Amino acid sequence: MNEINIFKEISIGGLDKELLLQRLVEAGIRFNDYAKILFDHPKFFPSHSVEKVKLVKVKPTDLGLKNPYSIEKLLQVASTFGLRPCPLYLAAFLRLEYLDQEEGPYCTIASALPESDENFPTGFYIRNFENSLWLRGYRAQGECDHPANNEFIFLK
Fold first, then answer.
1. Structural domain tally of the chain?
2. Does a structural domain hold residue 88?
3. Sequence-distant (≥ 6) Cβ neighbours of residue 147 within 8 angstroms
4. Based on C-alpha coordinates, what's the Rg of the chain?
């Protein structure tokens, strides 16, 4: 595999959940119902202190994965490349920092599953669709087929 380059360096934390949500709304970010459920989850808890993090963007094929695969398998394989899952709340900070995202494929923020219940949302993805910026929750059950052009965001 080629070297994994830094995609973005962003600051996360320093805002409580309510202020973070307010900033997203003020920026015109759109949400689906799964995103709202994830915002209410106890694991969506931004740190009080600000932390600068380095993010990478990879396709599962870059990691040697072929469909179908589970999110757990993706996280396991990514860890062998020195990539770490993102805290659940990182997606909201990335959405605010990535307002120039091109229209098209979405970027899934790789994070540990908030619940073991397959009926609960799995995590977030961000997308620019029809000139609207989205922070959406998604649900993936077990092994599933992910779009070939899907990219995942990890901590480096």
1. 1
2. yes
3. 105
4. 15
Q: In this structure, is residue 89 part of a structural domain? A: yes
Q: What percent of the chain has pLDDT over 90?
A: 74
32 CB burial (10 A radius; 0-12, 13-18, 19+): middle
In this prediction, residue 7 carries a pLDDT of: 93
Domain hosting residue 125, numbered range: 6-155
| pLDDT confidence tier of residue 1, bands split at 50, 70 and 90 | low
32-43 tens-digit pLDDT: 999 999 999 998
> 96 lies in a domain?
yes
pLDDT score at 85: 97
137 bridge partner residues: 124
Q: In 39-48, which positions are buried (b, 16+ CB within 10 angstroms) versus exposed (e)?
A: beeeebebee
Q: Is residue 1 part of a domain?
A: no
